[in-house]
């Protein structure tokens, strides 16, 4: 399975700048929580375009800090949103929420 978070890869992505890595990791939570709120609203409104944008944002933010599993599931959901498959998105949301919770837990441990 894809790792929740790969700290070594994350440090590589910021060219070894540990302070930047820590800062980006801490910025992820407020960004992710805002996305999560927007996603819930978009789902309630059956707004596939807004879902696409939010999942695209999550995919990029997660990839930037090597939160690999979050990036992966966000990419899957982004594709479903592009196809306007709201039923499949709803079915995947519990997994998305779980992966996000696990990701935030791992990121919170970063000092």
State the end-to-end distance.
Answer: 26 Å
How much of the polypeptide forms β-strand, as a percent range? under 5%
Low-confidence stretches: none
- Tally of individual helices: 5
Q: Rg, please?
A: 14 Å
What general outline do the C-alpha atoms trace? Answer: elongated
The run of helices and strands is HHHHH
Give the number of DSSP strands. 0
Search tags:
111 residues, mainly alpha, elongated
Task: Walk me through the structure.
The protein is built from five helices and no strands. With 111 residues, the chain is mainly α. Helix 3 (48-64) runs antiparallel to helix 4 and helix 4 (68-82) packs antiparallel against helix 5 (86-108). The protein starts with 6 loop residues before the first helix and ends with a helix.
Brief write-up:
Helix content is about 80%, strand content about 0%. The chain has about 110 residues and is mainly α. It is elongated, with a radius of gyration of 14 Å.
Topology:
Blueprint: H1 7-13, H2 18-44, H3 48-64, H4 68-82, H5 86-108
């Amino acid at each position: 399975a894809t790792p929740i978070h790969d700290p070594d890869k994350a440090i590589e992505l910021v060219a070894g700048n540990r302070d930047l890595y820590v800062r980006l990791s801490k910025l992820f939570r407020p960004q992710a929580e805002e996305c999560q709120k927007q996603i819930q609203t978009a789902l309630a409104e059956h707004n596939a375009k807004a879902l696409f944008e939010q999942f695209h944002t999550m995919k990029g933010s997660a990839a930037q800090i090597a939160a690999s599993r979050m990036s992966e599931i966000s990419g899957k959901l982004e594709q479903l949103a592009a196809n306007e498959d709201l039923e499949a998105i709803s079915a995947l949301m519990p997994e998305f929420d779980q992966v996000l919770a696990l990701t935030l837990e791992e990121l919170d441990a970063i000092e």
